[in-house]
Amino acid sequence: MRQVERAIFDLRRGLPVLVRAANSDVLVHPLEGCDDEALAALHALSGNEPALAVTRHRLARLGLDTADRIVRIPLDPADTAEEVVAWASAEKSALPPEITPQSANEGTVAALDMMRIGLLIPAAVVGDVSDAQRARVETLVADGSILAVAAEQVDAYAETRSNFLKRTSDAEIPLSHAERARFVMFREADGMREHIAIVIGDPNDWSDAVPVRLHSACLTGDLFGSLRCDCGEQLRESVRAIDERGGGVLLYLAQEGRGIGLANKLRAYTLQDGGLDTVDADHVLGFGDDERTYGVALEMLEQLEIERIELLTNNPEKIAAMDQGGVEVVNRRGIYGKLTKQNRRYLDAKAKRAGHWLEDVLNGSEEAGRVTALQRPAAR
């Protein structure tokens, strides 16, 4: 695990790493910080023509479909870093017609998994290490100039990194909408992310089905009151609603921007300013519709000994995640912020593209926020 964490740290610093795989060792340079010098250095060191690794979501934005999760786009020595970066992340970009994407090998898949975990753009320049260059690469690994990590280690890390949460600290923190509140901090095993359970009221007085909100962190909305979303109002309304219902738990999850991280969220905002909706903007950057997972939330509830809940959500995926993780969702309560001219397009996209139950707020219903009959998400 530590080797994977060190590799991700190097990638976030813009440094190349070596991924060891059964079929080929792969040198990897993150898209962020890739310039002509880095492109040439990767080519020279690997001894093979580099390729651009992207996700199927990004490839679809380039007008090509694939069943593969990750693909490689062969690069020519004449290709500039500016062109490569555009192919990976620009809204208006097209591949030259003579380029045919290829299936990604094990090392390339591991490389993009590390990009996702490290909250980088899910794209990288990769080069398979040739036999002629193997000795030189091994020398650089031996003297610590390049870090090497095994593909199977990355795969195992991606599967387990959010497990084994450690409860680190807690404190009473009275809130404006819930005077009796305790913040309980949980840290992931790798130490990279921390999540907070806000325990409201006295657990001895909670109802059998505990009111619970899964709230993904939103710096711009929660802290600064951004008008582009309704997150801050949802957060405060959730605290108030939980308190009014006799107490419960709000899980504040470190999953900014539906799991893509703050830097990529800001990139997506810029794309939205050009006319894209929130889902398409994420696709341009190579992400899926929603990159969040809820294993952390399930483990937090387990440690808090909560098994039956009334879920405050408009998102059918959260109900599905709780069901699949063994937490019984007894009721659902819709939770809304205000509809504004700045967030209408965002909320409309969530309703139409992601199936969120937002009819009440989009239609200006006075019923918004009531407890609704429990709906289960449609099977996919």
Automatic annotation (TrEMBL):
It comes from the Bacteria. PANTHER family: 3,4-DIHYDROXY-2-BUTANONE 4-PHOSPHATE SYNTHASE, GTP CYCLOHYDROLASE II-RELATED. Belongs to the GTP cyclohydrolase II family. Residues 167-332 form the GTP cyclohydrolase II domain. HAMAP family: RibA. It comes from Salinicola rhizosphaerae. InterPro entries: GTP_cyclohydro_II (IPR032677), RibA (IPR000926), RibA-like_sf (IPR036144). The keyword Membrane does not apply. It catalyses: GTP + 4 H2O = 2,5-diamino-6-hydroxy-4-(5-phosphoribosylamino)-pyrimidine + formate + 2 phosphate + 3 H(+). This is GTP cyclohydrolase-2.
